[in-house]
């Protein structure tokens, strides 16, 4: 049974929200391991402003193996190198060189590549839930109230995690709860590769023993102030005097107390409609067989066109993605004279764009429709399509994958030194 079939079977009336928070584990490091599988299980640091062989920059993310050496996000690369030397500098035969067993690998942030991987995950999330709020490149909230009941929430979460890992190759932790704040805490609770379901009526009991810093919107600074007031746990915060919290923190003090009590009725509100719809598929081994590649693209084109039809989406651009060894990502796109819905055209254009790679070894192919239009306007006539040219140049474009990403994000009150740091902090 597919995930779509599973959610359809559990459809029904619900009184309680069923909210799922999906958080990718060490996402930048996971992406680097997709590109270099030999890095799996090794201490890995991804640095912003870092250049190979140099001590400059800051840690954007550190794998769990690197964290065991004391490397944390937002730490200076020079400090990280003191705790975890580069593997390239290690030598077991040289007493003056680092021990290879106590060294790690360093890579430079490649945001375009990470966004291309994130887009695959986001496609799964949008395909799974009608309402998705993308918080950042590596996390999102899903409202699955209309498709999942509490008896099947655990099975749903497992199927979602499995689909992300099977189709994209990265690992997600999932939290499911009746409130956004509790779902986020649940997804962090059993990382990495975790699944925690907190049912209605159990939220406050689940939160009570947690450190106060784990409460939603409580960062290190606020946690220190709360501890100075004798508030050590979420349970302490839940029982704290709301007036005293209001005097110290203003309205936000009452808000975090509500979160600690499991009181959070905020709806999952999407940042906006998706900007693109796509499907991707990897070959077991890289192939140069033109017909295998064409057959795969035909199937993907039909799937994407059907998804666009179900969502009442017209599209102005049809594109493909081709991944060649070792993990080089190529995108090509054709701009149309106006918004259309035409499955045959999606296949035709996708195959035409694929012709450029007919002789290449290919690991993965994808088909995308973008520049979506959800209005009731009639689709454009395709007369003269072959001669049509978009404003600004050639209709066949090499597009940045980043153009297709939604950019809605919730900003935390304080940074998380153990988590993945926003690239914005280093720019």
Explain what you see.
With 427 residues, this protein is an alpha+beta fold. It folds into three domains: 3-25 and 114-260, Alpha-Beta Plaits (2-Layer Sandwich); 28-110, MutS, DNA mismatch repair protein, domain I, CATH 3.40.1170.60; 276-403, DNA polymerase, Y-family, little finger domain (Dna Ligase, domain 1, 2-Layer Sandwich), CATH 3.30.1490. Helices cover 33% and strands 21% of the residues. It contains 14 helices and 13 strands. It has helices at 3-9, 27-35, 64-67, 77-83, 111-128, 153-168, 180-189, 203-207, 220-228, 234-239, 242-249, 251-260, 290-310, 343-354, and strands at 19-24, 44-48, 58-62, 105-108, 131-136, 139-143, 172-177, 195-197, 276-287, 314-324, 328-340, 362-373, 396-397. Strand 10 (314-324) and strand 11 (328-340) form a beta hairpin. Helix 5 (111-128) runs antiparallel to helix 6 and helix 11 packs across helix 12 (251-260). The longest helix is centred in the C-terminal third of the chain and has 21 residues, at 290-310. The chain is flat. Residues 10-14, 381-418 and 421-427 have low confidence and may be disordered.
């Amino acid at each position: 049974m597919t995930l779509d079939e599973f959610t359809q079977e559990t459809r029904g009336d619900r009184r309680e929200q069923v909210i799922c928070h999906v958080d990718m584990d060490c996402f930048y490091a996971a992406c680097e391991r997709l590109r270099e599988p030999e890095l799996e299980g090794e201490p890995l640091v991804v640095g912003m402003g870092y250049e190979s062989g140099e001590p400059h920059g800051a840690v954007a993310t550190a794998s769990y193996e690197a964290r065991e050496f004391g490397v944390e996000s937002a730490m200076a690369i020079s400090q990280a190198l003191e705790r975890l030397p580069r593997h390239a500098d290690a030598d077991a035969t040289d007493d003056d060189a680092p021990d290879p067993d106590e060294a790690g690998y360093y890579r430079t942030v490649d945001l375009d590549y990470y966004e291309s991987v994130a887009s695959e995950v986001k496609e799964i999330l949008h395909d799974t839930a009608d309402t998705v709020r993308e918080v950042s490149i590596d996390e999102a909230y899903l409202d699955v109230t209309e498709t999942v009941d509490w008896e099947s929430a655990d099975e749903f979460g497992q199927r979602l995690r499995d689909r992300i890992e099977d189709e994209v190759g990265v690992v997600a932790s999932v939290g499911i709860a009746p409130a956004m704040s509790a779902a986020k805490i649940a997804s962090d609770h059993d990382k990495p590769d975790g699944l925690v379901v907190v049912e209605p009526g159990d939220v406050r009991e689940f939160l009570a023993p947690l450190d106060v810093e784990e409460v939603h919107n409580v960062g290190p600074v606020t946690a220190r102030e709360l501890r100075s007031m004798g508030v050590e746990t979420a349970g302490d915060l839940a029982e704290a005097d709301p007036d005293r919290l209001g005097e110290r923190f203003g309205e936000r003090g009452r808000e975090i107390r509500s979160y600690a009590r499991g009181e959070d009725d905020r709806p999952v509100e999407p940042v906006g409609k998706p900007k693109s719809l796509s499907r991707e598929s990897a070959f077991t081994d890289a192939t140069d067989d033109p017909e295998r590649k064409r057959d795969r693209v035909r199937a993907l084109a039909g799937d994407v066109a059907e998804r666009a039809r179900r969502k009442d989406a017209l599209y102005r651009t049809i594109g493909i993605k081709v991944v060649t060894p070792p993990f080089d990502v190529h995108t090509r796109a054709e701009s149309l004279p106006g918004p259309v819905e035409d499955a045959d055209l999606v296949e035709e254009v996708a195959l035409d764009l694929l012709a450029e790679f007919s002789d290449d070894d290919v690991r993965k192919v994808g088909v995308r429709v973008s520049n979506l239009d959800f209005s009731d306007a009639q689709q454009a006539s395709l007369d003269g399509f072959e001669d049509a040219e978009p404003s600004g140049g050639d209709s066949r474009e090499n597009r940045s994958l980043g153009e297709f990403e939604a950019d809605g994000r919730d900003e935390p009150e304080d940074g998380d030194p153990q988590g993945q740091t926003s690239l914005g902090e280093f720019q």
